[in-house]
Write a structure and sequence with these properties.
Blueprint (H helix, E strand, L loop, with lengths): L2 H7 L5 H9 L3 E3 L2 E2 L12 E3 L2 E3 L6 E6 L28 E2 L8 E7 L2 H8 L7 E8 L8 H5 L2 E2 L2 E2 L4 E7 L3 E8 L6 H7 L5 E9 L2 E2 L8 E3 L2 H9 L1
Length: 232
C-alpha cells in the first residue's frame, strides 16, 4: 500500500495532505524518515510526528446540520461546531466540505480522508441538491441565468439544474443542483438575479438524502451508503 493511502485510511489526513506531511519529513517508517511515494509493507511501523498510527475501520456519519454551527473541528471565536453535535470518542472525524453558519442540512462526517477528498474535489462534479427559499415570487424563466451559468465574483458558475417547487406572493422555494461548491456560491447566484436567500438547506448528495433525520440528529451511514458514495 502506498504510504499516503495508508495515512488517509488511518484517518490522519487526505492523500494530498499526507503527501505534504511526508515532504515535510514528519512521517517515519520503521524509524526512518519516509520518502514521497514510499510503499508500506505488512507489519511496518508508521509514525507521524513521532506518534504511531495504524490502520483502523473508518467511521462514516450523516448529520442534519442546523443553523448556528460552523463546519470545522474547532473555532477560535468560540462558536459552536458540528462536532459539538457528534458523540464523543469517534476519533479524528472531519466534516466533508462546508455548509456556512447560516445554512443547514445534509453533512457527511468521516475519518476517511480519501473519501472526503473525493466528495469535495470539484473535478469529480458530484451533484449536491439544495432547497432555497427567497422572498417574493419567481417564474421558471427567472432561473434561466442561474441554469446557464451566471457571473459572480468575476467568474461564471457552471451550468446547473434549478426548478421551482413552491411559489406565492410571499416567497418562492427552489431546488437547485450544483456540482461546484465554492464559498457561498448559491447565495451569490441568487443575489445576481436580485434575490436574497432566506433559507439554504442541502437535501441531497448524489441520491443520499436526509430522510428520517431531524435537525441536529445524526446516524451512521450503512455499508451500502458508504459504497455508494465511493462509487460517485
Amino acid at each position: 500500500m502506498r504510504l499516503n493511502k495508508y495515512l488517509a485510511s488511518s484517518g490522519v489526513a487526505s492523500r494530498r495532505a499526507s503527501d505534504l506531511l511526508i515532504e515535510e519529513g514528519k512521517v517515519t517508517v520503521n524509524g526512518k524518515v519516509a520518502k514521497l511515494g514510499a510503499e508500506v509493507a505488512d507489519g511496518a511501523e508508521i509514525a507521524v510526528d513521532g506518534k504511531i498510527v495504524s490502520l483502523k475501520q473508518n467511521e462514516y456519519f450523516i448529520l442534519n446540520k442546523p443553523k448556528g454551527y460552523i463546519c470545522s473541528v474547532s473555532d477560535d471565536k468560540g462558536r459552536k461546531t458540528v462536532l459539538d453535535l457528534m458523540p464523543s470518542g469517534v476519533g479524528r472525524i472531519y466534516p466533508v466540505g462546508r455548509l456556512d453558519y447560516d445554512s443547514e442540512g445534509l453533512l457527511i462526517l468521516t475519518t476517511d480522508g480519501e473519501l472526503a477528498q473525493k466528495l469535495m474535489h470539484p473535478s469529480n462534479e458530484i451533484p449536491k441538491t439544495y432547497l432555497v427559499k427567497v422572498e417574493g415570487t419567481l417564474k421558471e424563466s427567472d432561473l434561466n441565468p442561474i441554469r446557464s451559468g451566471i457571473e459572480v465574483d468575476g467568474y461564471v458558475t457552471k451550468k446547473c439544474k434549478a426548478n421551482i417547487v413552491e411559489t406565492n406572493k410571499n416567497y418562492t422555494k427552489v431546488h437547485i443542483t450544483v456540482t461546484e461548491g465554492k464559498n457561498r456560491e448559491i447565495r451569490k447566484m441568487f443575489a445576481a438575479i436580485g434575490k436574497e436567500v432566506e433559507l439554504l438547506k442541502r437535501i441531497k448528495i448524489g441520491e443520499l438524502t436526509l430522510r428520517g433525520l431531524d435537525r441536529g440528529a445524526y446516524r451512521k451511514l450503512t455499508k451500502e451508503e458508504v459504497l455508494y458514495l465511493k462509487s460517485l
